[in-house]
Amino acid sequence: MLRLDLKTHHNIALAYFLLAALLGIFLRLFYVTPLPGNYKYILHAHSHIALLGWVYLALTGIIYGLYFHKTKLSKKYIYIFLATNISLLGMLFSFPFQGYAIISIIFSTLFLFCSYFYAAFVLRNIPHKHSKTLSFKLIKASLWYMVFSSIGPWALGGIMSTLGNTSIWYKLSVYFYLHFQYNAWFLVALLGILFYLFQKLNLDFGRKEFKRFFLLLNSGVILSFFLSTYWTNPPLVFYLLGGLGVILLLIAFYQLFAFILRNKNLLKSVLSTFNYRILLISGVLLVGKILMQSLSAIPFFADLAFNNLDFVIGYLHWVFLGFVSLALFAFLNWLKLIRIPKNAFYLYLSGFLISEILIFYKGLVLWLGLPFFSNYFLLLVLVSALMPIAVGWIVGVNYLGASSRGIH
User: Fold this and answer.
1) Closest CA to 13 of 332, 310, 308, 232
2) Any keyword Transmembrane (predicted)?
3) What is the pLDDT confidence band of residue 401, given thresholds at 50, 70 and 90?
4) How far apart are the first and last CA of the chain?
5) What is the reported pLDDT for 408?
6) What separation in angstroms does the CA of 148 have from each of 112, 293, 355?
7) Nearest by Cα to 305 from 292, 318, 317
8) Which of 330, 339, 328, 345 is nearest to 404 (CA)?
9) Fold of the CATH domain 1-131
């Protein structure tokens, strides 16, 4: 008989995070010493396992736990979960050896179908008592963004066979997918979980205020995609739409942060000090993300980011390793789905912050022509290694805990 619980679900997500982190260290070692393997192929495996193994599984498991927690994991859900893991393992063991080729494309396509089945499962089976809540409205929107983002991967096949991977449409398809993953599916889903927390604490955001926030947020999310087109020197209207998207997002998040500040004492009193601190740090990183995204609305900074890969990598890691992963840590710890040891968290945070400083430093050096210190890449490897060590620590604590409780 198939048996699975949500703690096992998230232990598996953590294991993917550890694998992605180890692949990241391996990639950075390419700049230190000759290594076997194809850098680009391993990069594909790293990014797919990070986004789809860790973040996707963590978010989907939390969503199930919030809205279906009174019921056992259904067989239908378990089958979706198993198929998802088959697709992830297929990508893990095909991308490093062949990049985008027939086997990895088959498993990537399987993952897309699994994500569609998951979205349909949640939307069709959501209990009536949750269907009209503010939190689920955000979750529902995030799931539609997840489905919408897949237009990018579907378009890539046709573009590669007709225009090739040097076409601007190839990059635009990739940016379309990344935008609606990072800035829509991940972001809006995390906000949905945050509103669930508000709901549990009886914090009334207000229906009228939420309607305004929801409209501003979603309009901003959609229009800010045009920021990703600036590098093509598009028509003026694209610049105006991208700039409008940033303004709408700034207004939406001003409204949200003002609400949080008004209720911070209650949040402090109900959440543990540790969980509150993780959410606070994640919130600060979210502010940084919004500010960096806002800067990209200025053509000068958009061109600077496009021509300086270190700034792009720094931003993507800021969002993924910083804001998103820390928010997931806080919510998973709060829901008691995984346990985050304090020392492991601070070790992870140290590795993240110092590696971000080094990445942005390299970007500034290349931009301004400043002196570059020797052994930079070795130092980056050593500092970055703190993150997989910390994640491995968290994985070990939770797997040992699961074994002692007899979790299947």
Assistant:
1) 332
2) yes
3) low
4) 11
5) 34
6) 11, 21, 32
7) 292
8) 339
9) Four Helix Bundle (Hemerythrin (Met), subunit A) (1.20.120)
